[in-house]
Every structure is written in structure tokens, then in C-alpha cells.
């Protein structure tokens, strides 16, 4: 795997790093590239079942998966293939730890801006056993 294609030790002209910067991710993720983003997504997937932060925090975490989706499109076929297994594992874990729900964006994203429930499935998931803070936020948003 070429590290430049995934952002690790790549130049600032690297398309993955450019994409990550354009999405406003942390410098750590930009520097670590897709590997770092997928590692972070994997960590999120391990704690998703009993999530007890706010709905806004959850939305930020799901935004990371959207960022990964875009960065995967910006990388090479070889790098995409080499990272696919780790991403699938984290995705599968997140799906098992969550339940389908309405769009977590609520009415903020409608029409052409609304995420697609098939291609952006992560925006239509909620924790299986949300903590008190998250449960209150989900109820207030009509997503319980």
C-alpha cells in the first residue's frame, strides 16, 4: 500500500489529505490519513451500543464515516482495497450496536441536501442502549 495515497507521510498535494483538510478534520486525522480515520471509526463502533454523549456528538461521530466515504473515493484502488476489510469490520460492528432510525439530521437537511438512507446509512442509526443524555436527545428529536 502506498502511504501517500492514504495520506500517511504524503505530500500536501495528496488527494486524500486535500479532501480531509477540506472537510475540516483534525490535524491528527489529516496526518494519519485514511488509516487514522478508520481507526477512529473503529473506536466509535466499539462504544456505539451504550453511547451517552449528546445527539450533536453522535452526529459528529457519524460525520466521520461520511468523511471516510469521501476519502475512500479520493484514494487509489489499491489503497481502497487494502483498507476495505478494516472499514467493513467497523461498519458491521456499528450496525450491530445500533438500530435504524429516522435521519439524525432531522429537519436540518431536506430535499437535495438530505442524506440518502442507503448510501449514507450511518445517518440513519442510533445507539441500541443510549445513556440518559443520548436517550433524552433522541426523544426530543423524535428518534427514540
Keywords summarizing the entry:
144 residues, mainly alpha, two-stranded antiparallel ribbon, 6 helices, 57% helix, 4% strand, disordered N terminus
User: What is the total tally of β strands?
Assistant: 2
The low-confidence parts are: 1-9
How far is the N terminus from the C terminus? 42 Å
Average of per-residue pLDDT values: 89
The main sheet comes to: 2 strands, antiparallel
Structural class estimated from helices and strands? mainly alpha
Our count of helices gives: 6
Radius of gyration equals 16 Å
Q: State the helical fraction.
A: 55-70%
Q: Strand content of the residues, in percent? A: under 5%
How are strands sequenced across the largest beta sheet?
1-2
* Bulk shape: globular
The string of secondary-structure elements, in order, is: HHHHHEEH
